[in-house]
Design a protein that fits this description.
Length: 74
């Protein structure tokens, strides 16, 4: 099973961006998308694979938070 996680681009240098995933910041390759700082992207295996609408991204991140909370409760 593969998961693609949404995050916010907070910095860009050449083809590498720093993406914030709810406070966790990671380097992500941006070769496949045309984005700017502040955009949300879907990331899979270290590559941004799609630009995402901010509203959809925030809704998706809320669902992730809920899923992680449920997992912590077990």
């Amino acid at each position: 099973m593969c998961l693609a996680v949404p995050g916010k681009v907070i910095e860009i240098k050449d083809s590498v961006g720093i993406v914030d995933f709810n406070g966790v910041k990671r380097e992500v390759r941006l070769d496949l998308v045309d984005v700017k700082v502040g955009d949300y992207v879907i990331v899979h295996t270290g590559f941004a694979i799609e630009k995402m609408d901010e509203k959809e991204a925030l809704e998706s991140l809320e669902i992730w938070k809920e899923l992680l909370k449920v997992q912590e409760d077990f």
